[in-house]
Design brief:
The protein is mainly α. The protein has 2 domains: 107 residues, no CATH class; 71 residues, Ankyrin repeat-containing domain (Serine Threonine Protein Phosphatase 5, Tetratricopeptide repeat), CATH 1.25.40. It contains 10 helices and no strands. The termini are far apart.
Amino acid sequence: FAFTYAATHLIPVLTRIWPLPDDLPHAAGMGNLSRVKQWFDESGAPALGDVEHHYPSSPYMPKGRVEEYARQWGAPSEQRVLDTALAFSVINRHFDVADFLLEHGANINTNWNSHESASILHHLVFYGSYESMRFLIDRGIDMTIKDYRWNSNAQGWALYGKKDEKMAQWLEDAERQREQGAR
């Protein structure tokens, strides 16, 4: 919850009753680059051990949610762990960690989202984090990715889901500027 919804300021309160998992996604969400790097071997390849010990498959995830995620995204995998770590780092504005993860196999175009397969950009629409959205855009996220339920890109989520015309226009402008820069 705290990592998915950019509320890591609640961690000190939550850890009184819930120990912070020692896994790659949570280290990334906290911005702990030195711990993140420990989940990779000397060649730079992920060294996660059993992916069942990393969120979203860890014992901290309710069993029903693990099964729900498996239906949407397939069986737990190293890639899913990397992509979740990327999402947590971007959502919580730990861009040094996010860059490291992108350099080491995380997929910027992952269909990760907190509730439905879409993209990290879709998720960020509801937080108004232009800084995090800009990070993804500047690093080449595919802005045409559509969610499976509404068949809408992040701009559509901003316009119709959040009802934020300013953000929808910002996303449209950002995509246009990027396309013009690529010519």
